[in-house]
Write a structure and sequence with these properties.
The protein is an all-alpha fold. The protein has one domain. It is built from four helices and no strands. It is elongated and about 55 Å long. The two termini are 30 Å apart.
């Protein structure tokens, strides 16, 4: 998304709106990454580990689906 940060808009309101959207995207990406890290950490707990491993043996079931 580096290229989109280089866009120069003539209208201040358009520039503000674009910047707001980009900040929202960055926030959502950061939250998604943190959530995925937490899910991975939780999946490794003894309470979930065996079930997750069994479910992941089925084609198409990854960690996120198994959890």
């Amino acid at each position: 998304m580096i290229w989109i940060n280089q866009i120069k808009l003539d209208e201040p309101n358009e520039a503000y709106l674009l910047q707001s959207h980009l900040e929202e995207i960055a926030y959502i990406q950061a939250r998604t990454q943190e959530t995925e890290r937490r899910i991975k950490r939780t999946a490794a707990l003894p309470r979930f580990l065996e079930s997750v491993q069994i479910l992941q043996e089925f084609p198409g079931i990854g960690l996120m689906t198994a959890m």
